[in-house]
Amino acid sequence: MNDELEVTIEKTVFEGRALARHGRYVIFVDGALPGERVRVALTGRKRRYAFARVLELLEASPHRCDPGCGVFGTCGGCSLLNMDYATQLEQKRGFLLEALHAWPEVTAQVAAVLGMDDPYFFRNKMVYSFGGPVDAPVLGMHRRGDFYSCVSAVECRLQSPQAQEIVRRLLEFARTRGLPPFDERRKVGLVRDLTVREGKRTGQRMVMLTATAAHPAFAELPAVLGELATTVLLGISPPLHNAARLERVEVLSGPGLIEEQLNGLTFEVGPTTFFQTNTLQAERMFALLAQWADEIQPRVVLDLYAGTGPIAFHLARAGRRVIAVETHPASVEAARRNQQRNNLPEIEWLAADVEKAPDAVFASAPDLVVLDPPRSGLLPQAAAKIVAAGAPHLFYVSCNPATLARDLPLFLNAGYVVTRLQPMDMFPHSYHVEALLQLRRMPPP
Ligand SMILES: C[S@@+](CC[C@H](N)C(=O)[O-])C[C@H]1O[C@@H](n2cnc3c(N)ncnc32)[C@H](O)[C@@H]1O
Q1: In ligand 1, which atom is closest to the CA atom of 353?
Q2: Which of 44, 113, 43 minimizes the C-alpha distance to 80?
Q3: Is there a domain that residue 168 lies in?
Q4: Which of 76-80, 201-205, 372-376 has the lowest mean pLDDT?
Q5: Residue 164 beta carbon below 6 angstroms from any ligand 1 atom
Q6: Is residue 27 in some structural domain?
Q7: Hey, is 165 helix, strand or coil?
Q8: Model confidence pTM above 0.85
């Protein structure tokens, strides 16, 4: 096979790549849309498939649009920004249909993806990495397919104008004070990354600079950011640490956390606690789960992988008993404070891994189990415990079709059937798709 060839794109597949076929060979093309005819150059070959980039667009899709972003294609952030939004939503529904194709009774339930009215500037959190030389630093996302370099995100269509201004000021701050960007490969340098968290409903903003060590210039940060930041933090992550693992966090100004609201409930958001990244869509997701719960009127609910408590609080508002399990101790502490803030009826919190939680939790005769696992999905021991709880209803929130397809049979084989499957778009322009499933346990025949 030649290194250059013409192909027609069949569809977008999970991870945002366009799929084409050449004989029995599958070719994954970056940046092309379904239906397009393209001339491509192969960039990597395996036995049954290859990767390629577009050399020439021979026939463009009517759904192609201007990405409106100078780094689209090289930035590791968005993969679908050149596709109109309605088509993105259709393609995302396709990812779920494809992942679940072995269960036609499940795919029959897959509704249209609930998208956003305005799919820009929606993120309430972004982590930017520093890169480049000390006299011309870059602050942005990892380069597509290259963890060791980054592309500028000074202008990003996912972040608010205020967050973009914070990025500009931090970049200028690092450059003018001569603070060397951390070099991941050589493990040298000072400034690693910048986290901006924003309360879309409260207008509060947290800015955390992560560095390998303290530096006197960091004391200037609150003045550099001024009214843009409600609170400024410094995270210390020594060179040999993974950047996400902070050795300590210092509060440089403000309360050290911000507040965000979801459907009238108030949540504290700390530097490391999990919080849904798309506030508007999270409100719709939790309102929908609350509506589903109202329909079945459970008295006892298990909320597994509970984070800082949004599902527990939405369900406890109606006076239900909720037992919530979450592994991250800081999230559980924040959840307990959130509970006081919202003056909610008692929710029992357990800081534990679901798979290791005491059997008593699962023996509480729940009428409903809600599970919202991380992208890696469920461990088999966790699924076994959930099945053993014998709840008549499950709400399963999945952010990864691949692990959903792996884990769902554990419930189908135990007598549950999927009665609803509502996909939601929590991350417009990326390949991610969230799925909300309602399952009902059928009595044995
Ligand atoms: C997708 S988040 C959902 C959080 C929450 N339901 C929400 O919507 O904000 C998954 C959560 O599971 C937690 N987690 C990950 N592995 C876990 C485990 N084995 N047991 C319990 N919680 C876990 C993470 O810390 C994270 O808070």
Answers
A1: 20
A2: 113
A3: yes
A4: 76-80
A5: no
A6: yes
A7: helix
A8: yes
